[in-house]
C-alpha cells in the first residue's frame, strides 16, 4: 500500500494464482482503509486505486477485474506480465555486458535484468530464473558509486 503525493492510496499486489474470491478480498482492502481513515482530516477525498500484477502463466481471460454488488462497485487495473515484451531488450543488455563487462548500465537496463524472472511465460522457469542472475552478472563489474 502506498500513499501517493496527490493523496491517492495505491494498492499494488503480485498474484501467482487466481482464486474465486480474490476480487472480493481486494475490495475489502478499500473498505477497510476507508473505515480506518474516514474521519482523518488529512484526507479530504478518499481515492483508492488497485493495480494487480499477474505472473506470466496467468491469462487475461481467467481474471475478473471488477466486483459489482449493486450499491458497491470495485474495479482494479490488472497488469499481465505475459503481455509485456522485454525479451529483445534483455538480450541486447546481456550482449552489451558480454562485449564490455565494464559498461555502465542505465537504471532501466538494470531493472529489465533484475525483473526478467517475472516476465517468463513458464511457471517452472519462473522459479529457476533468480538462480541464474549470478551467472548473468559474473563478468559484469559494477561501479560501487553508481549502485542504487
From TrEMBL:
What is this protein identified as? Answer: Uncharacterized protein
Report which superkingdom the organism of origin falls in: Bacteria
